[in-house]
Specification:
This protein has 194 residues and is α/β, with parallel strands linked by helices. Helix content is 36%, strand content 24%.
Length: 194
């Protein structure tokens, strides 16, 4: 598969493996990767050396690697770091899709760099890469209202209405991936942040 090198060469969708977590809010990043695989004809394969399920797809002519880390959320950096090291992908060329409790269900926001905001998957990726300088695609799953309820909230399934909102957000985000690969960050932000 030969394609142009896009602005982002690796898209990591965060989540937890296994049927127990399949429909939970914490797996929103997995759902985005699944949608990209569906749209662009890729095939996710277990790649033990990369600690995740990986695919390589062409998106509007851009060669892009996708990964769903199979390390559980708190060790997501193992998969992202392994791929980045092997394929010599700098942090600036990595986009990480993840659930975001600080956004209402159905919201999508792009962010370059910054802190982890208490998200353990981002924390581990930042630690593994040695920098926060990777991009994030934040998929809103809403906040439960109290910090003691955050873990049960993200590890539970969304209501039917929230699920519809999240699915729409994932579609909207997937629609903008070609723009992001083309380096049209501002235009993608305008579409998603509107």
């Amino acid at each position: 598969m030969a394609g142009r090198e896009g602005h982002f060469r690796l898209i990591a969708g965060l989540g937890n493996p296994g049927s127990k977590y399949a429909g939970t809010r914490h797996n929103a990043g997995f759902w985005l990767v699944d949608e990209l695989v569906r749209r662009y004809g890729g095939e996710l394969r277990e790649e033990p050396k990369f600690r995740g399920d990986c695919a390589r797809v062409l998106i509007d002519g851009y060669d892009c690697r996708l990964v769903k880390p199979m390390t559980y959320m708190n060790h997501s950096g193992q998969a992202v770091g392994a791929l980045a090291n092997f394929f010599k992908i700098p942090p600036e060329a990595i986009l990480v899709a993840h659930d975001e409790i600080d956004l209402p269900p159905g919201s999508v926001r792009l962010k370059r760099g910054g802190g982890h905001g208490g998200h353990n998957g981002l924390r581990h990726i930042q630690s593994t890469l040695g920098t926060p300088d990777f991009a994030r695609l934040r998929l809103g799953v809403g906040h439960p209202g109290h910090k003691d309820q955050v873990v049960p909230h993200v590890l539970s399934r969304p209501s039917p209405d929230e699920l519809r909102q999240l699915e729409r957000a994932i579609d909207d985000a997937a629609d903008q991936i070609p723009r992001l690969l083309a380096g049209e960050w501002d235009r993608a932000c305008q579409q998603l942040h509107a």
